[in-house]
């Protein structure tokens, strides 16, 4: 009720770089720290962590991704860091991780070859799969239930010139996912590994975050660092929204670094580089499902996937001809 006074301040031993509410218990929060440690809080028990992982078994770099798993106990989670590791945890016993994976795309399982993780994606309807966005611009798709560590990395998607700052599956079509990095936002189909199926033009300012609308399958939001900082709302299939022109709103006087959408899709919170949080209400046009929208969007994604498949096959053919020469 009082916008400039927090209800509770969480006090970690090292700055928090990722923080997630437990989907089964809104009093419990999981935090990844700048020094690589994992911590969890119970807001009923005050501002200090209930437990923190020991330094020796934690990440060696900041924990940029921390995600709760779907589990019967509601206590299991996993984390990813620029140290190149994904670690699984049970908050009832943070003395050591329950499982480890080095993000080595050569599949030798060597930590010295591992790519640094900056984003972590997990879709509860696909409990064995997860994806990691890396500093090197590569998205790594993984299967946790693979028999050995080398098979846990299933494939990679390369499309950005710098770190992948956002990685999110479409809530309506989970095989379609969004990545944000460098100056573009890109939409991928899980089936096409060589290139995205759609992408925005190269913006002059750097893009810093992005997420899908929870109400409309074709709408996504991005933040960027220019001044005045903007929230951009692109991506409409042709014919769906001819009457709406999309103008980036100025949010505050500081560069924007992150955003989160409320589940109902009508409120978005933006965080700035200097720590200001701005809450915006989104106009009903952007969060009201249009007639036939799901069918139109699905047709668009399928059409673009087919197009890329044809191009991929053609490229393969040309490479084989070159080799034959």
From TrEMBL:
InterPro entries per the UniProt record, alphabetical: Dynein_IC, WD40/YVTN_repeat-like_dom_sf, WD40_repeat_dom_sf, WD40_rpt
Keywords: Cell projection, Cilium, Cytoplasm, Cytoskeleton, Dynein, Microtubule, Motor protein, Repeat, WD repeat
Principal cellular location given in the protein's record: cytoplasm
A cellular component annotation (GO) from this entry: microtubule
Coiled-coil region(s): none
Stored Pfam families: WD40
GO MF terms held by the record: dynein heavy chain binding; dynein light chain binding
Localization annotation: Cytoplasm, Cytoskeleton, Cilium axoneme
Superkingdom assignment: Eukaryota
Entry's Gene Ontology BP terms: cilium movement; outer dynein arm assembly
Family in the record: Belongs to the dynein intermediate chain family.
PANTHER family (alphabetical): DYNEIN AXONEMAL INTERMEDIATE CHAIN 2, DYNEIN INTERMEDIATE CHAIN
Name listed for the protein in its UniProt record: Dynein intermediate chain 2, axonemal
Protein species of origin: Mesitornis unicolor
């Amino acid at each position: 009720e009082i916008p400039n006074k927090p209800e509770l301040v969480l006090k970690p031993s090292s700055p928090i770089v990722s923080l997630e509410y437990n989907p089964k218990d809104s009093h419990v929060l999981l935090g990844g720290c700048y020094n690589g440690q994992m911590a969890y809080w119970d807001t009923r028990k005050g501002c200090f962590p209930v437990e923190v992982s020991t330094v020796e078994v934690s990440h060696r770099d900041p924990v940029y991704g921390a995600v709760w798993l779907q589990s019967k106990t509601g206590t299991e989670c996993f984390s990813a860091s620029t140290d190149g590791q994904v670690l699984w945890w049970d908050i009832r016993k943070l003395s050591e991780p329950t499982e480890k994976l080095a993000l080595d795309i050569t599949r030798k399982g060597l930590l010295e070859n591992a790519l640094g993780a900056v984003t972590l994606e997990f879709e509860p309807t696909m409990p064995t799969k997860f994806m990691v966005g890396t500093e090197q611009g590569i998205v790594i798709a993984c299967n946790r239930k693979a028999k050995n560590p080398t098979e846990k990395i299933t494939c990679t998607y390369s499309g950005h010139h710098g770190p992948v700052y956002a990685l999110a599956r479409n809530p309506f079509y989970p095989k379609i996912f969004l990545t944000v990095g460098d100056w573009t936002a890109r939409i991928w189909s899980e089936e096409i590994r060589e290139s995205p199926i759609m992408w925005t033009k190269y913006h002059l300012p750097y893009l810093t975050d992005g997420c899908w609308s929870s109400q409309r399958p074709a709408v996504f939001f991005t933040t960027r660092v220019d001044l005045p900082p903007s929230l951009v709302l692109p991506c409409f299939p042709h014919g769906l929204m001819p009457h709406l022109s999309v103008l980036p709103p100025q949010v505050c006087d500081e560069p924007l670094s992150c955003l989160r959408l409320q589940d109902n899709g009508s409120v978005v919170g933006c965080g700035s580089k200097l720590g200001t949080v701005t809450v915006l209400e989104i106009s009903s046009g952007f969060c009201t499902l249009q007639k036939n929208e799901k069918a139109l969007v699905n047709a668009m994604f399928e059409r673009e996937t087919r197009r890329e498949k044809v191009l991929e096959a053609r490229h393969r053919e040309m490479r084989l001809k070159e080799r034959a020469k």
